[in-house]
Amino acid sequence: MAKDDEQIQIHNHKHKKMFIGVIWNCASELKLLLSTLLFLCSIITLFQIFPVRDLRGCAAFPPPSAVTTELIASPPLVQTKELEDVAVDGGLIKRTFNGYGTAAYNFILMSAYRGGGATFAVIGLSSKPLHLFAKPTYTCQWVPHTATVSDENITVAGYKILPDWGYGRVYTVVVVNCTFPFPVGEDGSGGRLLVHASTAGGGDSNFALTDTIDALVEAPGSVNVSRFDAPPEYEYLYCGSPLYGNLSPQRVREWIAYHVDLFGQKSHFVIYDAGGVHPDVMAVLRPWVEKGYVTLQDVTEEERFDGYYHNQFLIVNDCLHRYRFTTKWMFFFDLDEFIFLPETTIKNVTDSLSEYTQLRISQRTMSNKLCYLDDHPGKIYRKWGIEKLVYRDTKRGIRRDRKYAIQPRNVFATGVHMSQNLKGITIHKTEEKIMYYHYHGTISERREPCRQLVNTTEKNVDGTPYVVDTTMREAAGAVKRFELRMIGPVLQNTHQ
Ligand SMILES: *[C@@H]1O[C@H](CO)[C@@H](O)[C@H](O)[C@H]1NC(C)=O
Ligand SMILES: *[C@@H]1O[C@H](CO)[C@@H](O)[C@H](O)[C@H]1NC(C)=O
Ligand SMILES: *[C@@H]1O[C@H](CO)[C@@H](O)[C@H](O)[C@H]1NC(C)=O
Ligand SMILES: *[C@@H]1O[C@H](CO)[C@@H](O)[C@H](O)[C@H]1NC(C)=O
Ligand SMILES: *[C@@H]1O[C@H](CO)[C@@H](O)[C@H](O)[C@H]1NC(C)=O
Question: What is the pLDDT of residue 75?
């Protein structure tokens, strides 16, 4: 079933590509041809009584796009006929090689967004070996809805960004930046962005196979370019990584309440569900969705394609471009991480660093199993994770991952730990102003995180020194009160 569907899709793609090529090269001839056919059809419909067998089928003519594909009798691009070995002469046998199908798609479109009057970002996946060992190219074309005489062939080379540091698997992430020399579709007349993705002989040097991707369609009147200069709606927007697995509702509950409290009224949280938002997790998010703080994106389809970490790099780039003009700052970190400001408010921090496009945020690593036993052990299970997991890993000389925040209008593609395609400056030393606590893995388990109860201020486990750090524990009380004030007691009985 699935295989058949895919084959049909591939066929449609090829047909579309040829269709566009022909339309472009001989638009006037085609119009003439179509009008002639249409005329013929009308005649036949009117005079069906005439027993002209061969022309009858014409009366039930398919829509124009299908028509043209049938009209184009170009040879197939890839040799599909089986070849046989041939004995040439003098004992020389010319061996043949027959190709069947393709192992990974040339391009899988996730999304395309306008980034101004003349520029677009197209986000998708593409065969990794193709990008690693060959040089596939992208060409962008703008096709206005209403073809007028003044319309030119608005075709530019697409600028390809591979933001995933070579982490890809079968697929790698591609962001194609399509920037035209002048604004397109700005007058609100509508149009389409096509991306022609060429393998440039990467898969078979005999063929520069090109697939045409219908990346974006703008209906007439749907574009308002002034939004690209308007002040953003939000101050802070969180872009989440794809969530998968059996997540702990209680950990998610703590995380969202803590961060809505921290980021404040002009903030928004975009959560991508790759299968991890099961009903119990949905239950803790719903009150915040209803309050307008959270948007959920269902990206479970993405799981069909084997990329790095549930296509995390794809998802963050979708988020970047989808919300690029709706927020002043964008934060990228995970649900087992808690942003912490040593001294002041988030607004004071970002205002004081507003000259930077990107802020790197360093990590405080917390134990995910040592718990602080300062009162009755029976009560510890009712405490929040951030209250009881208070042992901080103080091992020196370890490179720890960082997370980051950006001013997205200056960023063109992004990654998991930082963004490398941006305009402006990155600040790396920020730990006096902003940090994050990392409770690695605690979110992905639905059981009590405490494995060992400790009552000392220091503890050494397998050579790793831990010290008590009660910063998050002290913040928990205010967060609990904040949650109660904002959404009431609906989540009081949430489980691990
Ligand atoms: C449009 O431009 C592209 C790229 O420059 C070129 O390959 C194509 O032949 C052009 N088509 C027409 C009709 O000029
Ligand atoms: C494409 O790249 C150009 C040049 O770096 C940049 O000005 C533009 O904003 C980018 N467009 C998008 C949609 O990212
Ligand atoms: C276009 O967007 C701007 C800024 O977001 C807004 O003020 C204006 O009303 C919009 N215009 C139309 C016609 O929607
Ligand atoms: C934030 O900055 C303002 C203005 O600089 C200052 O008055 C205020 O005390 C700061 N707030 C905090 C909590 O540091
Ligand atoms: C800490 O725990 C140990 C054993 O778990 C116990 O013997 C000791 O009394 C405890 N100390 C305090 C101060 O609670």
Answer: 42
Residues 481 and 432 in one domain: yes
Poorest-confidence range of 60-64, 77-81, 385-389?
A: 60-64
Whether 102 is in a domain gets the answer no
**pLDDT of the residue at 148:** 59
Length of the chain: 496
Q: Which domain, by its residues, includes 399? A: 231-491
Question: Does 408 share its domain with 298?
Answer: yes
Q: What is the CATH number of the domain that holds 419?
A: 3.90.550
Specify the pLDDT at position 98. 86
| Contact present, 366 and 438 (Cβ < 8 Å) | yes
The pairing of strands 411-413 and 327-332 is unpaired
For residues 184 and 247, state if they share a domain: no
Nearest residue (CA) to ligand 2, atom 5: 412
Average pLDDT in the 148-171 region?
Answer: 84
Ligand 4 pocket (Cβ < 6 Å) reads 344-345, 348
In the chain, how many domains are there? Answer: 3
Ligand 2 atom closest to Cα of 411?
A: 14
Distance 463 CA to ligand 1 centre (A): 65
Q: Compute, in angstroms, the gap from residue 184 CA to the centroid of ligand 2.
A: 15
pTM for the complete prediction?
A: 0.82
Q: Quick check: 36 and 28 in contact, CB under 8 A?
A: no
